Amino acid sequence: MRSAFSLFAIAIAISPALTDEPKTGSVSPKGTPLKATIEAKATKYALDLGGMSSDDYEKMLAEAGKGKIRAPKAPAVELTLVITNTSENAIQIWKTGDPVTLEFQLTGPGVKQIEPPLAMTMEFRIPVAVEIAAGKTLELPIASLSGGMRGISKSTYWTKPGEYELAAVLKTGVSPAPEGSKKQEGFGIVTITSAPIKLTVEAKK
Fold first, then answer.
1. Among 3, 65, 147, 201, which is disulfide-ready with 103 (CB 3.0 to 4.6 Å)?
2. Cα–Cα distances in Å, from 17 out to 11, 20, 21, 193?
3. CA–CA separation, 170 vs 93, rounded Å?
4. Radius of gyration for the chain, computed over Cα atoms and rounded to the nearest angstrom
5. DSSP string, the chain
6. Which pLDDT score, from 0 to 100, does residue 122 have?
């Protein structure tokens, strides 16, 4: 009979929570033939808080999130979101327009995300579709961590130096519409989440 210690050691060895498996992206609904990855021209960034401490900067962001003061610009980045058509046929995808949103999931030692009240023009910006051939890609440059409606309604910040992980979440329309998707103007609404990448934020010298 194995000792309790041996059984415990085996359990730890096979525990999924302790494995170092890479994190992957996802699509919704499942079966959507698209994959998102982030390519990074730069993975190290300087922390610029405008001379403020991390605590004071976070307090300022909280005030900006309530619309009491103007929000600072979201951190600038040099990234590209790459959308790959994993099917054997060409597909149409919305590249721009009001139904298309890009948001960010950032984890790390100092993360703040705000959605300040903003005044926007009332016209509806019609989505514009482009074709992605089978096995080919669409590249969407990411210049800052500002996203949401029209790329300005939700801003994500790092407020402390350290190691971070960043994933991108693209909501768009695809034709042919994937099974289980909500239909809009002949397109199916889908959400594509990239696998996270690692970024390093360094104290400004």
1. 147
2. 11, 8, 9, 22
3. 11
4. 20
5. ---HHHHHHHHHHH-GGGS-PPP--EEESTT-SEEEEEEES--EEEE--TT--HHHHHHHHHHHHTTSSPPPPPPEEEEEEEEEE-SSS-EEEEEESTT-EEEEEEESSSEEEE--------S----EEEEE-TT-EEEEEEEESEEBGGGTSEEEEE-SSEEEEEEEEEEEEEESPPTTPEEETTEEEEEEEPPPEEEEEEE--
6. 81
Q: What is the pLDDT of residue 16?
A: 36
Q: Which residues of the chain fall below pLDDT 50?
A: 1-21
Tokens 């600038």 appear where?
76
Look at residue 199 in the predicted model and tell me its pLDDT: 98
List pLDDT tens digits, range 90-129: 999 999 999 999 999 999 999 999 998 877 788 888 999 9
